[in-house]
Amino acid sequence: MKIKTLTDLERVCIAATLTLGRDSLDMVYHILKPDTTVESPLIFHKMALRWWNNPTVKSFANDLRAIHLQRNDDAIEMETEEDEPLTKAFLVKELRLALKATADPSDRASIAMKLSDLVGLKGKDSESKEQEQRRFYLPFVSHCRSCKLVQLFKDISGQNRTKQ
Questions:
Q1: Containing structural domain, residue 50
Q2: Is pTM, for the whole model, over 0.90?
């Protein structure tokens, strides 16, 4: 099986689609194939999707994404010094970038859980329940007055009063 090589125009169109987003796929495909005439925009969109889902185009797009993410990682490493302490905002930013870059559902779930732990989304519910609870303190009952601990406390507090 021959591997189809991409033209320079196709490479530019793939980069434009990655930069502008998938919403611009029809416009980019029109730039790529200006002579294409179809009756309905739906058919044109299907043609653009067929081109985008081509294995050669997909692999080139994935390579471009990897290069872009690597450049972003390098830029972040250049911005932060090695001795600089990690901040919560920096970690949240890194986790969000990792969440966008990861395609595996199990990895995405674990990263999302770490992000929610860091942001504190889980702790808010339990804290609010604890704050809503009311605590009632009961006074000493009559049989508690005969307890040795209470008598010892009375003796100690009585001695402190006489000294003053």
A1: 1-79
A2: no
3-state secondary structure 61-86: HHHHHHHHHHHHHHHHHHHCCCCCCC
Nearest CA to 97 out of 125, 65, 122, 126 is that of: 65
Looking at residue 143, what DSSP letter applies? G
Is residue 101 situated within a structural domain? yes
Residue 61 included in any domain: yes
DSSP for 146-164, please give it: GSHHHHHHHHHHHHHHHH-
Residue 104 falls inside a structural domain:
yes
pLDDT per residue over 129-153, tens digit each?
Answer: 667 777 776 666 666 667 777 778 7
pLDDT by residue (tens digit) across 57-97?
Answer: 888 888 888 887 776 665 555 555 555 667 777 788 888 88
64 and 31 together in one domain: yes
